[in-house]
Amino acid sequence: MKCRKCNRPAVFNMRRHKLALCEVHYPEWFVAQTQRAIEKYHMFSPDDRVLVAVSGGKDSLALWDVLLRLGYQANGLYIDLGIDGYSAASREKVEQFAAQRPDARFTIVDLKAEYGERLPEVARRVHRGRGKPCSVCGLIKRHVMNRVTRDGGYDVLATGHNLDDEVAVLFGNVLHWQTGYIARQAPVLEASVARSETGHSGGLARKVKPFCRFYERETAAYTLITGINYIYAECPHAVGATSLRYKGILNQMEEESPGTKSQFYLGFLRARKEGFFCERAEEVELHPCSNCGQPTSVPGMCAFCRLWKT
Ligand code: Q46
Ligand code: ZN
Ligand code: ZN
C-alpha cells in the first residue's frame, strides 16, 4: 500500500477514512487533525495555559507531545497513586518523556506523600466500590486534577480520552438510559462556579478532550511511529472493567462495518449540537467544600475530604 500524499510505502491504513499514510505523513496528519479538533470545539488558544493529565499511557503522552509540537503552553500533571506493579513504572515513563523534551514541565502529586496513604490503603479503609479501588481512584483523580488546574492558574485541563473511550461511555450510558450523564458528555466541559452564602467560591475547571475523534489504534500508531515510550500494561485493577467489555463489543461491530464507532459518536455530537439533549443538561448546584473549598453538590464536606476524615 502506498502513502496517499507521497507514494512511498504506507505504514498505517485508516479504513474508515480510506486513507493510508507513510511514516512522515501520518504524524503530520495526526497533529493537524488535533489542531482541527481544538479549533472546531473552541478548546483553547495559544494564550491559554493548559494542564495535561498524564498517566504514562499512550494517549496522554501522545496528547502532551502533540500540544508541545503545536506550540501550546502545555504542562503535565502526574498523580502517583501508589498502585503496586503499575504506578512506579508509569511514573518512570512520564519522567523519561519529560527528560527528553526541554519544554515539557510537569507536576507530580504523590498521594502517599501528600495525604499519608496510597490508593489501595485508602480504598481498603473506606470500603467503597466492592473490593475494587476504581471508584475511590476516580474521585481522587478528579479532585487532584481540579485542584492543580485551579491552584496552578491553568485555563483548562486536557485529558487524552480517545473516541473508543468516549464511545464506550456513551454506549454504557445509552444502555442504561443515564440521560443526565448523556447530556453532560462532550468534548468540552465548561467551568462551573460554586458559591456559598459567605461569598466563598471555588469551582470545576474547564475540561477538554482534544483526541476525542481519534480511534485508539490511531493514537497507538502515532506513539509507535514517533517513538514515544509509554507503559503498555494496563492498571491491574482495569481487568474485568465494564468499559473494556463495551470496547470489545464495539470493536466487533467496527470489524464488520468500519466506521461504526465514529458514526455512533459523531452522530451523537451532531444531535447534541442541534439541541437534542439540552433540556437534560440542567446545571447542578455546586457548593464549596467546608474543608478544602472545592466544589461539591451537597453542602458540607466534599467526598474527597470525607475520605480522609473517616
Ligand atoms: S480507575 Fe481503577 Fe483506573 Fe484507578 S484503580 Fe486503576 S483501573 S487507574 S483508569
Ligand atoms: Zn507520505
Ligand atoms: Zn473538600
Summarize the entry for a quick read.
The protein has 310 residues and is an alpha/beta fold. The protein has twelve helices and twelve strands. The chain has helices at residues 25-40, 58-69, 87-99, 111-115, 119-126, 134-151, 163-175, 179-184, 216-226, 242-256, 260-273, 303-308, and strands at 12-14, 19-21, 49-53, 73-80, 106-110, 156-158, 188-189, 192-195, 201-204, 207-208, 287-288, 295-296.
- Secondary structure class reads alpha/beta
Measured between the Cα atoms of the first and last residue, the distance is 61 Å
Specify the helix fraction band. Answer: 40-55%
What is the number of beta strands?
Answer: 12
Q: What's the rounded overall pLDDT mean?
A: 93
Largest sheet, in brief, is: 6 strands, mixed
Which range does the strand content fall in? 5-15%
Strand adjacency order, main sheet: 5-4-3-6-10-7
Low-confidence blocks of residues: none
Succession of helices and strands:
EEHEHEHEHHHEHHEEEEHHHEEH
Backbone CA Rg = 20 Å
Bound molecules: Fe4 H S5, zinc ion
SS element count, helices: 12
**Which of globular, elongated, flat, extended, rod-shaped describes the shape?**
globular
Provide an overview of this structure.
It is a single chain. This protein has twelve helices and twelve strands. It is an alpha/beta fold and 310 residues long. The relative contact order is 0.14. It starts with 11 loop residues before the first strand and ends with a helix. The strands form four sheets. A six-stranded mixed β-sheet has the order 5-4-3-6-10-7, with helices on both faces. 44% of the residues lie in helices and 14% in strands. The mean pLDDT is 93. Bound molecules: Fe4 H S5 and zinc ion (2 copies). Fe4 H S5 (Q46) binds next to helix 6.
